[in-house]
Write a structure and sequence with these properties.
Blueprint lengths: L5 E2 L2 H8 L8 E9 L8 H12 L4 H4 E5 L5 E5 L9 E5 L5 H12 L10 E7 L5 E9 L5 H9 L24 H12 L1 H22 L23 E9 H11 L3 H19 L8 E8 L12 E8 L6 H23 L2 H8 L2 H13 L12 E7 L6 E2 L2 E9 L8 E8 L2 E9 L6 H20 L18
Parallel strand pairs: 5-6, 9-11, 11-14
Antiparallel strand pairs: 1-4, 2-7, 2-13, 3-4, 6-7, 8-15, 9-10, 12-13, 14-15
Helix pairs in contact: 1-11, 7-10, 7-11, 8-9, 8-13, 9-10, 9-13
């Protein structure tokens, strides 16, 4: 049975067309594997065999973007995938997560080729005797955070030595079929309706954003410019860090908030440490863009279905406890504004974006470094994703950690993504390397900030700390 052609949604097309050499728009996950239960095969043999066995079962990995005769971009099964063009092997001669992060940063720096399905996988060895890693890279036009985790899960087993399974992948669909024409024509027919809905949604959202603006419910483009809010260059820097998930949950329970509130507050503390070191502490909150999944059951496991909330990030406050309380208020306000104005907004903006103009406009903005003068849409991207709740294996090797990384955008040169898995909250920091040269300090500051937040909660007075108290965390 063949897989039908599918039009790129307006949002998927926006991600596809907005890419430039300085703004590659892919997402990555670094998967750290424990060797101890492996079979006698080498890690690379295991890696190759599993990907060859399963990649055609995962829709985003077998499809290429192509243009119909009517000009629409479609996802179509690629009948001739040369799998070795997608697989790579790296042996590093340095130990530790820092060496692995350096490899991931180099992989993140280069756009994916567009003449094949939009993904690559890199096996990395040498950073640890007992572990190896796979850096998976896929274009954002094909998956968002939720669908990306779903795609990755297809490569894993739920037990170290499962019974063999036989799965039949769909037969490749030829690029030009009646279904291809039907998909393209259907997209054109519904285009005016999508534009009309987009105009209505954007107009309503703008009015709601303006009327709801407050210190804890910021407008996009309203934050102060930080050192990482400038035009991008191609190199990327990456760093990894982990926290015990139970510790984060305990803080959330003790303060009546959520795990996401604690994640955002920790990020605020980490960015304050960075601002103190660079003598760039703002006198007001900065703005964090927080992706929100809008995926529904009928959407299926592929493509992009997301929007954004905008939080005020209190890097100007010296007290860890006060930062968490501020974030909790901002989260409540941001969710209220999103409920009135944000749902479907990114889809609406994408529907109104003239596709013929997106790529030349983004290239022009990049070439003149427009982000150096335009206000940044947000100061930082922060995302928190719920990972798998069960242990996962490949050929007896156990998945130990997942470090996720999204893209960075013109004017927003820093992204922080957290994912929960195996009792850990794992953080992937990614930045334009020419805007943040010391990204390792951000990851090291995370555990220090966690300790400072725990201490401020355990030793707070009966009335709690006030936002004016100078309770500065110890320097990193």
């Amino acid at each position: 049975m063949s897989s039908k052609p599918q039009s790129l949604s307006d949002l998927d097309s926006l991600f596809f067309l907005s890419e430039t050499p300085s703004q590659p728009l892919h997402v990555l996950a670094t998967l750290v594997m424990d060797r101890s239960g492996m079979s006698a095969k080498s890690a690379y043999e295991l890696f190759q065999e599993r990907i060859i066995e399963r990649y055609r079962l995962i829709e985003p990995l077998r499809r290429s973007p192509t243009r119909s005769m009517l000009g629409q971009r479609l996802w179509v099964d690629d009948p001739e995938i040369h799998i070795q063009r997608h697989l790579h092997h790296v042996l590093v001669d340095s130990r530790g997560l820092e060496a692995l992060a350096e490899v991931a940063g180099d992989i993140a720096s280069h756009p994916l080729p567009k003449d094949r399905p939009l993904w690559e996988a890199w096996l990395v060895e040498g950073f640890d005797e007992r572990q190896f890693a796979v850096v998976a890279k896929i274009h954002h036009s094909a998956v968002d955070g939720v669908s990306g985790i779903f795609a990755l899960s297809g490569f894993f087993d739920l037990e170290p030595s499962p019974a063999p399974t036989v799965s039949t992948p769909p037969a490749p669909q030829p690029p030009a079929t009646p279904e291809t024409w039907s998909t393209a024509i259907n997209s054109l027919v519904h285009r005016p309706q999508a534009v009309t809905r987009g105009i209505q949604r954007v107009t309503t959202s703008l009015l709601q954003f303006v009327s709801s603006r407050s210190e804890t419910a910021p407008l996009p483009c309203s934050g102060p410019r930080m050192s990482y809010n400038r035009a991008l260059t191609p190199p990327r820097a990456v760093a990894f860090s982990t926290l015990p998930l139970d510790d984060v949950k305990q803080i959330a329970q003790a303060t009546g908030g959520s795990v996401n509130d604690v994640v955002v507050a920790l990020c605020a503390g980490v960015l304050r440490r960075h601002a103190l070191q660079s003598k760039d502490v703002p006198d007001r909150p900065i703005v964090a863009a927080i992706p929100v999944s809008e995926r529904k059951p009928e959407h299926g496991p592929t493509g992009n279905h997301l929007s954004f909330m905008f939080y005020s990030l209190p890097v100007h406050l010296p007290s860890p406890r006060a930062r968490l309380e501020f974030v909790q208020r901002s989260a409540a306000d941001a969710k209220a504004v999103y409920g009135r104005a944000g749902d479907g907004l990114l889809d609406a903006v994408a529907a109104l974006s003239p596709k013929f103009a997106i790529k030349p406009a983004m290239k022009a903005m990049s070439s003149v470094r427009a982000a150096n003068v335009l206000p940044p849409p947000a100061n930082v991207l922060i995302s928190s994703i719920r990972g798998p709740d069960v242990p996962l294996y490949v050929g007896g090797a156990r998945l130990s950690s997942i470090f996720p990384m999204g893209p960075v955008l013109e004017g927003i040169g820093l992204g922080i993504t957290a994912v929960s898995f195996a009792g850990e909250l794992s953080f992937g920091f990614i930045a334009c390397a020419d805007l943040i040269e010391d990204i390792e300090e951000l990851s090291l500051g995370l555990s220090l900030e966690m300790a400072a937040l725990q201490d401020s909660i355990e030793h707070r007075t009966g009335k709690g700390e006030s936002e004016s108290e100078e309770v500065e965390p110890p320097p990193s």
